[in-house]
Design brief:
Layout: H1 3-22, H2 28-38, E1 69-71, E2 74-76, H3 80-93, H4 105-114, H5 122-169
Helix pairs in contact: 1-2, 1-3, 1-5, 2-5, 4-5
Amino acid sequence: MSWFFQLKVLIPFYTWVLSIKHGYRKAWKIICAEFSFETGNYTDYKANEPYYNICGMRPAAVREQNRTGEHNGYATFNDYWDCIEDFMLRNKAFNIPDVSNENDVKTWVSNLKKSNYFEANEQQYAKGVQHYLSSQGGHYNSVVMWFGVSFLAVCAAFAYGFYHYAQKKGGIFKG
């Protein structure tokens, strides 16, 4: 699987699914933008194989973590799903709430800063995340819609095939 497909398509989809699972339904696009910002639009070496660390996670000292190892002070993961899930679990452990609306970057970043997630200047960090949300937010919606339509198409094809199989087995289908 190409890196482009993994980073530009799977990460927004994984983030959407895991955000719903962990109670960050409104923040999922902000989180995607944060991952883009954290990695310089996925150009940082830690974002790629074999590290899969798209959010700058460090080894946890006070909570369980699903990392596979450590490299230069950063956690390594089996895949992007594990990294994103770990990010969500970290936020739950630090009681980071979902945002009130999907564009509330300032509140999201402020809560991350209070939990010591990052050391950078809060306004600069928020500006970076907002940049990626503004430039790529529509792409994130498209990815989720593409997966949704694809899933419905597969379900429809399965139902159509099952319907014709049932007709043939029941003697209704004359063909």
